[in-house]
């Protein structure tokens, strides 16, 4: 690896936490609906899951004028028969509890922690550039499932403090600007061709993790490096 890389941005879902995104979502969404119903919120599970998807789209379309959290809940408040405050409280309860069953829909590997630790041992700065569509508590749990130490990351993006999502280039631009990073000294590691490789437009090199690669739109693949997590560990070392 060229000595010019001083900063590594990592994706989480499908990268440091191997999973097939669709399987993961299909597993946890019904659990989320169940939690609301169990708490006395009268919702039709199917309609509820559809609404959550639209709330997710509201975050993806966020133009930076508010946080992703605000974009999500302002969409949901018209749909759910409870106050936004109560709805969010239920979501946080879920992400702290039953959501943890969804580890079954992922395939954690010790390689993830080894890769991050190896990067730090080489004197690199590490950041978790995970799509900020989850509350912090949900992201902290997924970090734990992956066998990672949250302390190893100088930044963890969550829906509370971001106003853009992948694949919006502004999501990445905001990270680089906030941390004052030189794109030429950065590497983005991810598995999603559309969401993670877009950062190349800012002059950042990319490493595409191939095991659980996602390319739903069949886009042409332009990346500087590619390989398995085992290859990535060697590459970082």
- Strand proportion, as a percent range, falls in 5-15%
Distance between the termini: 9 Å
Helix-residue proportion: 40-55%
Q: Can you name the CATH architecture of the largest domain?
A: 3-Layer(aba) Sandwich
Unreliable stretches, pLDDT < 50, 5 or more residues? Answer: none
What's the story with the biggest beta sheet?
5 strands, parallel
Q: Brief description of this entry?
A:
Helix content is 43%, strand content 9%. The chain is of the alpha/beta class.
Summarize the structure in words:
The protein has 2 domains: 7-19 and 106-236, 3-Layer(aba) Sandwich (Rossmann fold), CATH 3.40.50.1000; 22-103. The radius of gyration is 18 Å and the shape is globular. The protein has a 5-stranded parallel β-sheet with strand order 2-1-3-4-5. It is built from 9 helices and 5 strands; from the N terminus they run βαααααβααβαββα. Helix 1 packs across helix 4 (84-96), helix 2 packs antiparallel against helix 3 and helix 5 (110-121) runs parallel beside helix 9. 43% of the residues lie in helices and 9% in strands.
Salient structural properties:
237 residues; Rossmann fold; 2 domains; five-stranded parallel sheet; 9 helices; globular
Write the layout of secondary structure elements.
Elements: E1 7-10, H1 21-38, H2 45-60, H3 68-76, H4 84-96, H5 110-121, E2 125-128, H6 136-145, H7 169-179, E3 186-190, H8 193-197, E4 205-209, E5 225-227, H9 229-236
Parallel strand pairs: 1-2, 1-3, 3-4, 4-5
Helix pairs in contact: 1-2, 1-4, 2-3, 5-9
């Amino acid at each position: 690896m060229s000595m010019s890389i001083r900063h590594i941005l990592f994706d989480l879902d499908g990268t440091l936490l191997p999973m097939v995104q669709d399987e993961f979502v299909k597993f946890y969404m019904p659990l989320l609906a169940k939690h609301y119903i169990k708490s006395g919120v009268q919702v039709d599970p199917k309609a509820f899951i559809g609404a959550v998807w639209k709330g997710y789209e509201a975050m993806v379309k966020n133009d930076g004028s508010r946080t992703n959290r605000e974009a999500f809940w302002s969409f949901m408040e018209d749909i759910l028969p409870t106050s936004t405050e109560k709805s969010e409280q239920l979501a946080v309860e879920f992400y702290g509890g039953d959501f943890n069953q969804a580890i079954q829909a992922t395939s954690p590997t010790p390689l993830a922690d080894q890769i991050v630790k190896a990067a730090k041992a080489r004197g690199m700065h590490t950041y978790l550039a995970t799509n900020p569509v989850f509350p912090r508590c949900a992201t902290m749990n997924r970090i734990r499932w992956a066998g990672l130490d949250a302390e190893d990351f100088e930044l963890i993006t969550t829906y509370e403090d971001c106003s853009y999502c992948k694949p919006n280039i502004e999501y990445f631009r905001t990270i680089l600007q906030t941390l004052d990073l030189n794109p030429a000294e950065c590497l983005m590691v991810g598995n999603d061709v559309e969401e993670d490789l877009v950062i190349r437009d800012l002059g950042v090199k990319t490493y595409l993790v191939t095991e659980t690669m996602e390319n739903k739109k069949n886009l042409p693949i332009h990346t500087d490096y590619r390989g398995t997590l085992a290859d990535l560990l060697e590459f970082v070392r």
